[in-house]
Write a structure and sequence with these properties.
The complex is a heterodimer.
Chain A: H1 2-10, H2 12-26, H3 36-55, E1 62-63, E2 66-67, H4 71-100, H5 102-107, H6 114-141, H7 154-178, H8 182-195, H9 206-209, H10 212-219, H11 222-236, H12 244-273
Antiparallel strand pairs in A: 1-2
Chain B: E1 4-15, H1 25-30, H2 34-38, E2 42-54, E3 59-63, H3 70-78, E4 85-90, E5 94-97, H4 110-120, H5 125-139, H6 154-167, E6 172-175, H7 186-199, E7 203-207, H8 211-217, E8 220-225, E9 228-233, H9 235-267, E10 272-273, E11 278-287, E12 295-297, E13 302-314, E14 318-325, E15 330-335, E16 346-356, E17 364-373, E18 379-392
Helix pairs in contact in B: 4-5, 4-6, 5-6
Classes of the chains: A mainly alpha, B alpha/beta.
Chain lengths: 274, 422
């Protein structure tokens, strides 16, 4: 495993090149070009703000001394939505990435694991472009929300999410080669997962905290703790839960290990099956 | 130390017949048959134990029919797929021309694609920078290098792909059928470049159907048949044996086809006309042993034989023959009138033979016209393009006929005919 990771380091230039190619190619030929990576989350934010902030106002009220209504709700939503989009797009695109780049796999000697890595990193960069918008929102529109030094925990949250997403991405990209129907299952599964993660609502909402079963269910979801970490660093401006995040990291590492193992095991079949 | 050494390479493909039995992943999990279903129940062996070595600076060609395992072998050599068993040892940087421009992204420019493709092929950015001008120059794409690759013609696409792959500067070059798609002016340039590699003492493995090129560039040829090495050795000897095999195989096919064609011909009246007072039938081609066949060596004697039947007594009649190639060009035509035969009388059944001692036509398929008519052209029976035969030759000369000739060289010119080593 360690030597395999060293190999990955060897491919860093390839990875960097492929990621920048993906970024360049994605919006080439569109009118707004690169701004789409900013427009997309903003549009989504507008929709969710209208639906859950105005039409169906949430039951959140005040949590951790912060008001989660009105404009603050939009900011809260945005904090969770940005990393979720990163996760969601990474997994969905991973299910397709080996097919799209079938030519590289079949016609060139190519380190195939670079492809899911490229997918996750490309989406991570898109995510990073959204973060300054979030910060601007907090500074100019936040009512009683300020950027605190706890924001320095942001890279930790990103790292945990990266590890977990990578693991899942390896798994998904390898398995869809053999089970094409996984693609369709995934789209539905991710919608379900979205609502099972505290993004449009807060984990600390009394409505959830009063149900032991619901708290347990949400706690078993690694994405809960990752999104929560973002909520704490940006929105609540306090220390992320110091026990849950490391545990999530360990879970993430296990996912990474298993994901890579399965990917590696199935690697030889890709040439013939893609 | 051999640059390439393959030992007993076996490659089988699994056929997952069971995989399509379950409809969803869920049902597979529910039935706990996920992993047993993933196991294959049928195996297709593409390579059945292939061993060979390539010496430093040697060019090895691999020939064989479609499905003989050539491409599979090349993919294994390139490291794209792994052999099921056996070992492969390579020394030096390998560049495989299997599909040119395989990693190109259509939306971005040729310039950016050069860098990305170069890195995919294992070059560093610096190295590509050094080679950049050579690549564009060789590909003749100076004007278009900043346009997105999707606007390129297939020829431009291929040129750029070839140019990058060749400038990776490999020690071992693997070439699949790629040159068959190039435009006419670029292919010789590619061949030149390949020859330059040869001169530099690099190792080349070449997979092709183009036997002429194979003979020209290779030091050794492997003929793969059904995943095994059928023959290996001196190029001319192997290609000749291969051609002979292909010829024999075609002959069998042609015989079958000929039978059905005869039935077709009977139905096809448009290709036959005339008043039928004299009728031509039972046309066949026989070799010197009297055996009916349709494929002949270039210098093999053969005879065209047919029956005639005249219902009434005729005094004025001419027999004629014409030979046409597939382009419809008449290669030869003659009749008994031209050759000063004077007809006297024909009645009832008869037999006519035209013996050809040395046809000397080049490689290819030919059609025969047979006719019997009056001197003024009044048709008794015309058979147009009704019969075919094939000529095979060890030489791939061009034109219509092989005009017999001898080469003569003065003593200071060192040239000799390749002899076939036994």
């Amino acid at each position: 495993m360690i030597s395999k990771l060293k190999d990955l380091f060897k491919y860093r230039q390839l990875i960097v090149t492929l990621v920048s190619r993906e970024l360049k190619a994605r919006y080439r030929g569109t009118v707004f070009g690169f701004f789409w990576s900013l427009i997309n989350p903003l549009l989504l934010l507008a929709v969710y703000s209208i639906v859950f902030g105005i039409i169906l106002p949430g039951s959140s009220g005040r949590i951790e001394n912060k008001d989660i209504t009105g404009i603050n709700y939009s900011i809260f939503l945005f904090t969770g939505l940005l990393p979720w989009i990163w996760f969601n797009s990474s997994i969905l695109e991973s299910s397709n990435v080996l097919f799209i780049h079938g030519n590289l796999i079949k016609k060139i000697k190519f380190p195939i694991e670079v492809l899911p890595i490229m997918t996750v990193l490309t989406n991570m960069i898109h995510f990073m472009f959204g973060v300054p918008i979030l910060v601007v929102f907090i500074i100019f529109f936040g009512k009683g929300i300020v950027i605190t030094p706890w924001v320095l925990f942001f890279p930790v949250a990103v790292f945990v999410q990266l590890v977990f997403t990578m693991g899942l991405s390896f798994l998904v990209s390898a398995l869809t080669v053999h089970f094409r129907d996984l693609k369709d299952i995934l789209a539905n599964l991710l919608t379900l997962w979205f609502f099972g993660t505290p993004i449009i609502y807060a984990f600390m909402t009394p409505a959830i905290q009063n149900h032991k079963a619901m708290v347990l269910a949400l706690s078993l979801n690694p994405m809960t703790h990752i999104i929560e970490a973002y909520h704490y660093t940006f929105f609540f401006g306090s220390l992320p839960h110091w026990k849950r995040l490391p545990v999530t990291l360990i879970v993430g590492l296990i996912f990474f290990y298993i994901g890579y193992l399965i990917f590696d095991k199935l690697r030889d079949t890709f040439v013939e099956e893609v | 130390m051999y640059p390439v050494k393959a030992e007993n390479i076996v490659k089988y493909y699994k056929k997952y017949a069971n995989k399509h039995k379950f409809l969803t992943l869920k049902s597979a999990i529910v039935n706990k048959s996920l992993f047993s279903d993933l196991k294959s129940n049928e195996i297709f062996e593409a390579l059945k134990g292939v061993s060979f070595k390539v010496k430093d600076g040697e060019t090895l060609s691999i020939i064989g029919e479609n499905g003989s395992g050539k491409s599979t072998l090349l993919k294994i050599l390139a490291g794209i797929s792994r052999p099921s068993s056996g070992s492969i040892l390579t020394n030096g940087r390998i560049s495989a021309l299997i599909e040119l421009g395989a990693g190109f992204h259509p939306e971005i420019s040729g310039r950016e694609n050069i860098f990305i493709n170069g890195i995919i092929l294992g070059l560093t950015k610096k190295k590509i920078q050094e080679k950049y001008n050579d690549i564009i120059h060789f590909a003749e794409l100076e004007e278009f290098i900043n346009s997105p690759v999707k606007t390129y013609s297939s020829g431009m696409y291929m040129r750029l792909g070839f140019s990058i792959a060749i400038n990776v500067n490999p020690d071992i070059l693997l070439i699949d059928e790629v040159l068959s798609v190039g435009d006419a002016s670029f292919v010789p340039k590619c061949i030149d470049k390949i020859n330059e590699f040869k001169r530099k003492g690099k190792t080349i493995i070449f997979v092709s159907h183009d036997l002429a090129t194979v003979e020209r560039i290779s030091d050794e040829v492997i003929w793969l048949k059904d995943g095994k090495i059928e023959m290996q050795g001196y190029p001319k000897r192997v290609t000749d044996a291969y051609l002979e095999y292909i010829g024999k195989r075609d002959e069998k096919k042609a015989e079958k086809k000929h039978k059905t064609e005869e039935i077709e011909a009977e139905k096809n009246r448009e290709k036959r006309w005339g008043t039928k007072e004299i009728e031509i039938s039972k046309v066949k081609m026989i070799d010197k042993n009297g055996i009916e066949k349709y494929i002949f060596e270039q210098n093999e004697p053969f005879t065209i034989e047919f029956n005639v039947n005249s219902k009434t007594e005729e005094k004025d009649f001419v027999f004629g023959i014409g030979i046409f190639n597939t382009e419809g060009i008449q290669c030869y035509g003659s009749n008994t009138l031209i050759e000063d035969f004077k007809s006297q009388s024909i009645k009832g059944k008869g037999k006519i033979k035209i013996s050809i001692s040395n046809i000397n036509l080049i490689n290819g398929t030919y059609f025969i016209d047979l006719a019997v008519h009056k001197r003024d052209g009044y048709p008794f029976d015309y058979h147009h393009f009704q019969y075919t035969f094939k000529i095979t030759s060890i030489y791939r000369d061009v034109g219509i006929a092989r005009i017999s000739h001898e080469w003569e060289f003065s003593k200071n010119i060192k040239i000799h005919k390749k002899s076939l080593p036994k």
